[in-house]
User: Which sequence fits this backbone?
């Protein structure tokens, strides 16, 4: 739960509000993937439940319970295959992590591909109970944009009247995908890209030399987390290739079938991941909202395609299906 230097300002602001007992009841935390917003949110939850003033102290009973994590069995995963709860569910009775969950009614058991209304109803029922350790009850919903329409609607009432000492933290890297009714009921905290010097220093502290750091940051549009991933995975050239393909596809200058054929032959999963990430960046930078549904649909289909690559279908067809959502 380490904070990055670019978290410092927002973090201090929230801690000051905690000291005055004025933390918002509903908070929408957003930032591009790679900026450590999950770590930020988890640390904020710790600060809310911690029993001391120097929160999170890491040693009080609340902090220790919170740090005690378990993964569900089977492990919960996001549609893209990543763990839904990267460090597991906390052992603190007054904290809930809500994310992609297992559909108990499916057979064979499968993960839900959205956050469903039953999860939100259960959360609301839980929030109506008194906190067990007394300080507060906190729920972290990640990714908040994974909620389907019914789930988002069910959350509205809880967001309006969360009750005393109840805190909801919603996480998203694409706030525009959340209904306006949800956004307007939350206080916004946005994790911004750090200044270049800070990003370089952060990469240098992780052993990346200046030249590679510069190239990776350029490719990652200044995002240090993604730059680090690119350096560690040697994905700079691949990333550039995917970017050019996406640009051509969206502009109608490339045929989806041709691109799918090429992508299926080398590192298809990573290409799909890069493409999804790039679409997310485009969605965040959008000035014309009319483009958003297309980018959102493309993002979903790319992520689903990554999952399908592990199935019996031919990779080429899986990729083609996802890319045809983007073709102009
Ligand atoms: Zn503590």
Assistant:
């Amino acid at each position: 739960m380490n904070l990055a230097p670019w978290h410092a300002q927002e973090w201090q602001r929230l801690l000051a509000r905690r000291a005055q007992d004025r933390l918002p009841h509903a908070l929408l935390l957003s930032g591009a993937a790679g900026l450590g917003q999950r770590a930020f949110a988890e640390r904020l939850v710790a600060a809310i439940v911690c029993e001391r003033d120097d929160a999170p102290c890491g040693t009080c009973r609340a902090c220790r319970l919170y740090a005690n994590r378990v993964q569900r069995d089977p492990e919960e995963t996001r549609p893209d295959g990543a763990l839904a709860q990267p460090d597991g569910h906390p052992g603190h009775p007054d904290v809930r992590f809500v994310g992609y969950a297992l559909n108990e009614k499916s057979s064979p058991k499968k993960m839900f591909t959205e956050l469903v209304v039953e999860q939100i109803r259960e959360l609301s029922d839980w929030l109506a109970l008194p906190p067990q350790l007394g300080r507060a009850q906190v729920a972290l919903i990640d990714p908040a944009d994974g909620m389907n329409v019914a789930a988002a609607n069910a959350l509205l009432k809880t967001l309006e009247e969360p009750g005393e000492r109840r805190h909801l933290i919603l996480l998203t890297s694409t706030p525009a995908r959340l209904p306006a009714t949800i956004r307007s009921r939350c206080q916004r905290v946005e994790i911004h890209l750090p200044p270049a010097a800070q990003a370089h220093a952060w990469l240098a502290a992780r052993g990346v030399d200046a030249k590679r750091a510069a190239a990776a940051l350029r490719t990652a549009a200044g995002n240090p987390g993604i730059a680090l991933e690119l350096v560690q995975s040697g994905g700079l050239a691949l990333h550039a290739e995917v970017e050019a393909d996406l640009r051509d596809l969206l502009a109608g200058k490339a045929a989806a079938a041709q691109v799918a054929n090429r992508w299926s032959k080398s590192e298809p999963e990573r290409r799909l991941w890069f493409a999804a990430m790039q679409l997310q960046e485009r969605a965040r930078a959008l000035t014309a909202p009319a483009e958003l549904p297309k980018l959102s649909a493309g993002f979903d289909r790319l992520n689903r395609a990554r999952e399908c690559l592990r199935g019996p279908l031919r990779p080429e067809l899986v990729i083609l299906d996802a890319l045809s959502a983007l073709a102009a």
About this structure: The beta strands are 26-30, 69-70, 89-90, 95-98, 102-103, 110-111, 137-141, 166-172, 187-190. The CA atoms of residues 30 and 175 lie 7 Å apart. Residues 268-285 form the longest helix (18 residues).
